[in-house]
Write a structure and sequence with these properties.
Keywords: Amino-acid transport, Membrane, Transmembrane, Transmembrane helix, Transport
Transmembrane segments: 25-47, 53-71, 92-113, 133-151, 163-186, 206-228, 248-265, 285-304, 339-356, 362-382, 403-426, 432-451
Helix content: over 70%
Low-confidence stretches: 1-12
Family: Belongs to the amino acid-polyamine-organocation (APC) superfamily. Amino acid transporter (AAT) (TC 2.A.3.1) family.
Structural class: mainly alpha
Number of strands: 0
Mean pLDDT: 86
Number of helices: 20
CATH superfamily: Amino acid/polyamine transporter I
Organism: Streptomyces phaeofaciens
Strand content: under 5%
Membrane topology: Multi-pass membrane protein
Largest sheet: none
Shape: globular
Order of helices and strands: HHHHHHHHHHHHHHHHHHHH
Distance between the termini: 13 Å
CATH topology: Amino acid/polyamine transporter I
Number of domains: 1
Radius of gyration: 22 Å
């Protein structure tokens, strides 16, 4: 049996360009917090948890802060486009990097397809009669082209997408706070009338809201992948991680607090229209629905762009470390174009499955990726737990970012993830996702371990 203590893999990013500027990374970090899940998926969480959704987002936000801090520590010490996959390999051996890397690649590629479908539904609402698949194909072609070109094109797209999202949610928060304070013209202060019982559906509702909030935070990892292609990756990672706390508190927790204060949590509009539209309607903002549709469309397209980028870089890094077909490891002009094409084709294949096999294959695929983000977080925490001591002994000067109260908070984060797994086992819908994601992870781990043994025999 080969040892799992291996030499650090060579940094795989020498052939990639370094065209991302600090302003790109700053806005990617800022906009990455404002994902499509916040705008689209938070309504169901509010309907289940009521005012306690604020507590749910606070608890899950604290867990995400710990995960980002651990990832930031490792990524600042060893910047890599493989991010947590490369760190897992450094900590536990090739099988770990293989497992978490390809699981995340599948997650990102599938998410590209789902986001394309969501964006197409919005556009076909404006232009009825046009086929959804054609809009998805158009979006895919645009972002495939963007990512096939120089990395600075990706950075520019994300910069402006993020700027729009940040401006929209900042304006929403400002209007909401003014309305709650009773100083917004034409609006009466709601006081605490809409808050009522903190747990209207009991702890079961809080559990549903907590699970919904956990998965709304997906996508924060992209900045550590992108940092490897910047001119100063250590500075970029350190800045993103150090500001994660206020960004999560302001955009996620702040939004939920404003919404449940302005709108009754059990209002049908929260789910039917979306919580942000319902809140803006409550304020009498004309055209609120269409304004938010534009913002949600921007969030979905931003996520598509970021996920094509992230998937291609993860795939490139895996191949560079010997974990995939060599054809995907080429990077002419500093851009991994074969990996970009493969990621886009997989994503569009998911879209076709949603049309061809909507009742069996497509739901199975969705369940398979349902809990992958938790698998990724567990690998991040376990890798940081193992690598921190090695860094302190061998290269302490690389610890530009340090995990708080190590190792206590690392163990607290792992316990929190275990608790989420147990909560998922209690819910029928998430239980299926947990089983499917667990099966995929087990298959990938077995394949990675087999590959590691073959490499060890040489």
């Amino acid at each position: 049996m080969p040892s799992t203590t291996v030499e650090a893999p060579q940094e795989p990013d020498a052939t990639l360009s370094h065209g991302l500027k600090q302003r790109h990374l700053s806005m990617i970090a800022l906009g990455g917090v404002i994902g499509a899940g916040l705008f689209v998926g938070s309504g169901a969480g509010i309907a289940a948890a009521g005012p306690s959704i604020v507590l749910a987002y606070t608890v899950s936000g604290l867990l995400v802060m710990l995960v980002m801090r651990m990832l930031g520590e490792m990524s600042a010490a060893h910047p890599s486009s493989g991010s947590f996959s490369a760190h897992a390999e450094r900590a536990f051996g090739p099988w770990a990097g293989f497992t978490v890397g390809w699981a995340f690649w599948i997650l990102l590629c599938t998410a590209v397809g789902l986001e394309g479908i969501g964006a197409a539904k919005i556009v076909t609402g404006w232009l009825p009669g046009t086929p959804e698949w054609a809009w998805v194909a158009l979006f895919m072609l645009v972002f495939c082209g963007t990512n096939l070109a120089a990395v600075k094109n990706f950075g520019e797209f994300e910069f402006w997408f993020a700027a729009l999202k940040v401006a929209a949610i900042t304006l929403f928060l400002a209007l909401g706070v003014l309305a709650i304070a009773g100083v917004l013209p034409g609006t009466d202060a709601p006081g605490t009338d809409n808050l009522g019982d903190l747990l209207p559906n009991g702890t079961e509702g809080l559990v549903v809201g907590l699970l919904a909030s956990v998965f709304a935070y997906g996508g924060l990892e992209t900045v550590t992948i992108a940092a490897a292609e910047s001119r100063d990756p250590v500075r970029g990672v350190a800045s993103a991680v150090r500001t994660a706390m206020w960004r999560i508190a302001l955009f996620y927790v702040g939004s939920m607090a404003v919404i449940v204060t302005l709108v009754p949590w059990d209002s049908p509009a929260v789910v039917e229209q979306g919580p942000y539209v319902a809140a803006l309607d409550r304020l009498g903002i004309p055209g609120a629905g269409q304004v938010m549709n534009v913002v949600v469309l921007a969030a979905l397209l931003s996520a598509m762009n970021a996920n094509v980028y992230g998937a291609s870089r993860i795939a490139y890094s895996l191949v560079e470390r010997g974990h995939g077909p060599k054809a995907l490891g080429r990077a002419p002009g500093g851009v991994p174009r074969p990996a970009v094409l493969a990621s886009c084709l997989f994503g569009f294949g998911c879209v076709l499955l949603s049309h061809w096999r909507p009742d069996d294959v497509f739901p199975w695929l969705l369940n398979m990726i349902g809990a992958v983000i938790l698998v990724v977080w567990i690998f991040i925490a376990a890798s940081q737990l193992r690598l921190r001591g090695r860094l302190e002994r061998e290269t302490p000067e690389r610890l530009a970012v340090r995990m708080w109260a190590f190792p206590v908070l690392t163990w607290v984060a792992l316990a929190g993830m275990a608790g989420i797994f147990l909560l998922m086992l209690r819910e029928p819908g998430t239980r299926v996702q947990l089983y499917a994601s667990g099966a995929m992870t087990a298959v990938l781990a077995a394949a990675g371990y087999g590959w590691q043994r073959r490499r060890a025999r040489g």
